[in-house]
Design brief:
Layout: H1 3-19, E1 28-37, H2 47-50, E2 53-63, E3 75-81, E4 91-97, E5 119-120, E6 125-127, E7 130-138, H3 149-158, E8 162-168, E9 174-186, E10 206-208, H4 213-229
Antiparallel strand pairs: 1-2, 1-9, 2-3, 3-4, 4-5, 5-7, 6-7, 6-10, 7-8, 8-9
Helix pairs in contact: 1-4
Length: 235
């Protein structure tokens, strides 16, 4: 293991052990929802995106570093599509609050309003023969939601939210893939906590590119190991 990767892994394992929670995005609010895939434009070369259909999903919002609610922090949105690759084979997408521009879609962006802008994969995915960034854009009619988990929980409980799932090829604008509609929030017991990992849970023609993959995979694995040694289950 390269020195830099080993350093990141040791840090992630130690933080997760100390927190009894993931090293990053340690605490969150979850809900179930429905993703309606609505193809537009030429085919991507990934059947799951090229065929219309409704899919059950589980979503989790979290603050990236886990700072107290009044301090600025990037927001994470994890999305699991159940059975996307077949029974018991989910697809995981990890998104982070970002800008919408051709450069800012690659940068994490702390924001005071949780629904003021998109949540992006930051790094490109390989979709068929293409490289593209994925993002979930809140509906333009979304309410103002302060950047804290209590406010997000209250908003989810007040009614459904809609996000537009999109992809952008290098140097191009956003192309619609479908919509995600949320359900009410729920509290998950420890044994049901979802461990999101886009490197383990992907589709044959929809997966993260190799850039920084060793570093991120090592961090995910070390974070899970740290939680196990702390005596907790989950990611």
């Amino acid at each position: 293991m390269p020195a830099g990767t080993g350093l990141v892994a040791r840090a992630a394992r130690g933080i997760a052990h100390w927190r009894h929670a993931p090293a990053l995005h340690p605490f969150g609010v979850s809900c179930d929802g429905v993703l309606a895939v609505q193809p537009s434009g030429p085919p991507w070369g990934e059947p799951w995106l090229d065929e219309p259909g409704n899919h059950q999903v589980r979503m989790r919002w979290s603050r990236a570093v886990g700072l107290p609610g009044r301090l600025p922090d990037a927001l994470g949105l994890a999305l699991r599509v159940h059975d996307a690759a077949g029974p018991g084979r989910p697809l995981d997408l990890l998104l982070t609050s970002s800008g919408a521009g051709r450069r800012t879609r690659h940068l994490p962006l702390p924001r005071l309003d949780a629904l003021a802008g998109p949540y992006s994969t930051l790094l490109a995915y390989r979709i068929g023969e293409h490289h593209a960034v994925l993002a979930a854009h809140p509906d333009v009619a979304s309410p103002v939601v302060p950047n804290n988990l209590a406010a997000l929980r209250a908003t989810l409980g007040a009614g459904p939210l809609t996000f537009h799932l999109c992809a952008a090829l290098p140097g191009q604008g956003w192309r619609a893939l479908g919509t995600v509609t949320t359900g009410p929030p729920h509290d998950l017991p420890a044994q049901d906590t979802v461990s999101y990992d886009p490197y383990l849970n992907h589709l044959p023609h929809l997966r993260p590119t190799a850039r920084f993959s060793r570093l991120r995979e090592a961090a995910y694995a070390a974070s899970r190991a740290g939680r196990r040694t702390a005596g907790t289950s989950g990611p």
